[in-house]
Amino acid sequence: MGSAGVRLGRLKANTSALFVCDIQEKFRGLIHGMPAVVDTASRLVRSAEVLEIPVFVTEQYPKALGNTVAELALPPKALVFEKTKFSMCTSDVDKAFRKMNLDGIGQVLLCGIETHVCVLQTVLDLVEKHNVEVHVCVDGVSSQRETDRSVALRRLQGLPNVFLCTSEMAMFQLAGDSKHPKFKQISALAKEKRPDQLSAL
Prior knowledge:
Rossmann fold; 7 helices; Isochorismatase-like_dom
C-alpha cells in the first residue's frame, strides 16, 4: 500500500500466489502465441517453487480438453482443480484460496488462457470476491484471436487493483534484492532463451 491507502502493486513473495488458468493440451494449435504462453507459465511455476509461493492450477473440462501441458512440470504442492465455470474461482478454489487469504496472501500473479474469457472473469472474481491485487502477466496470457486478447488487456488495464506486468518484472519484484538467497536461481530463469514473445497490448 502507498500513501493514503493507494495500492502500488508491489509484489512480495510472502503475500503472493500464482494462478495458472487452463493451459491444456487441446489448446496447443488454437491459441495465438501458445509457445510463449507455455514458456512463460513454466518460468513462473518454477519461480514460484523456488520462492515457495503457492500455485493454483485449473483445467477446463479435462475429460475433453486434456490436462495441463507437460512442460509446466507442476510442483508436488500445486493445487489442481477441474472446472466447467469460465472463471478459476470455483467454489473449491475459493475455499482453498480463502484460507491462504486469511493467512496474508493478498496478491495473485495470473497467467493462462483465454484472456478475454477465463482470465478476465478470474480477475473480476478475485478483485470482487477476495479483494486482492491481481497482476496479469501479459507475456503469459493469450486468446485464439489477437483482437480478443488485446481488447481484454485494455479492459483489465482500467480495473481497480489490477496491474499488468511481464513475467520478468514479477520475478524480480518477488525476489526484491540481489542479495536474496534465491536470487541466482531467479536470475537464471530470467536469462533462459524464449520463443517469440506476445505483444504488450
